[in-house]
Amino acid sequence: MNNYKYYELPVCYMANGLELKLPVHKFSGGKGPVVGLSASVHGDETIGVEILRRLFEELKGMEINGTVKIMPTANPLAFEEAKRNNPIDRNNMNRIFPGRYDGTLTEIQARIMADKFLDGLDAYVDVHAGGQDPVVDYAYITNDEGFSRSFLSKILYRPKEDYIGTTSTYTKPKGISTVTVECGGGPNDSYYVEKGVKGLLNMLKYKKVIPGEAEIRRNQIVVDHIEHVNPHHGGLFVPGLKYSQMNTIVEGKVTLGKIYNPMTLELLEEIKAPYDRNLIILMRGSVNTILPGDFSFMIGDLSTAEGEF
To answer: Domain containing 199 — which CATH number?
Structure first.
């Protein structure tokens, strides 16, 4: 059985008189868990919307045991401008959960999502990506390691501390099986779209919401520390790595990228790898502008990793 319904969660009226709403696609069938999936909490992570759109198409013809709720665009105004944060109040939606009804626009939006989408779930997957330039590929281990592993990422991250105010820090204390996945970004290559859809379908199989046996990936690596390597200067970024080096080990303290002054054309900075063996988890691989402190590289520390590459 597969019953489908589309509805929208009203957030508020904007200054132009239009109503801001959050979209929900709901598939329901027989007895089973309620699984929620969201994307575009950060509006510049466009690929997550396409992954959920493709998942939506796959689910149309499937037998559903339980309920699947999809919120493809959790931050519509940020998505419209392809910006990480809400353009109205500049807040990062994934740092202010559960939000407030009497707060800023982003806080109101987060409160609506928390109360009317996240509450009542048995399992939750928040789909993220690298944004408009960086590419990323890993999944978090939060409170259900098997569920995290079922996304089939090569790299898993078990953080020692959680970020404050994320969707997962809201769902985790409620006993909701929670996974944040990071998949693709940058050129939004079809490889990562297909990888994301395959992983999410496998997660639904793991929870027995759709038919079939969940695939098990044996050669996964778990890291508990990721080094963020970001630039001090802004300017013209010229990469030292290719996108094909994602999720590989780069030997030595090599140059990850160079930053040039776009006016004088002088070299301002070389961004260096921090370890002798560097596991590439997030990277920039194209010539582009870059701001001081921009997310640029995330390097896994293999010295404390579980599993062999």
So the answer is: 3.40.630.10
> At 225, which amino acid appears?
H
- Residue 304 has what DSSP assignment? G
Whether residues 87 and 180 share a domain: the answer is: yes
Looking at the chain, the number of H-run helices and the number of E-run strands are 6, 17
27 and 140 part of one domain: yes
Pick left, alpha or beta for residue 20 (phi over 0 → left; psi -120 to 50 → alpha; otherwise beta): beta
Q: For 146, list phi and psi in degrees, rounded to 5.
A: -60, -40
Which helix (H) or strand (E) segment holds residue 33: the answer is strand 30-39
Q: What is the mean pLDDT of each run of 10 residues along the chain (309 residues)?
A: 93 97 96 97 97 97 96 98 96 97 98 98 98 95 97 96 94 98 93 97 98 95 96 98 94 96 98 95 96 96 85
Whether residues 170 and 252 share a domain: the answer is no
- 38-48 tens-digit pLDDT: 999 999 999 99
User: Does the predicted model carry a pTM greater than 0.70?
Assistant: yes
Token pair belonging to 146: 């098997």
Same domain for 185 and 82, yes or no, is yes
Categorise residue 112: left if φ over 0, alpha if ψ from -120 to 50, beta otherwise. alpha
Residues in the chain: 309
Q: Is the residue at 309 inside a domain?
A: no
* Domain tally, the chain: 2
How far apart CA 127 and CA 141 sit, in angstroms, is 14
**Distance set, CA 95 to CA 91, 99, 162 (Å):** 8, 9, 11
For residue range 48-61, list pLDDT tens digits in order: 999 999 999 999 98
Shared domain check, 229 and 217? no
Contacts 24+ apart (CB under 8 A), 10-17: 10/112, 11/105, 11/108, 11/109, 11/112, 12/105, 12/108
Q: Mark residue 293 as left, alpha or beta (left: phi above 0; alpha: psi -120 to 50; beta: remaining).
A: left
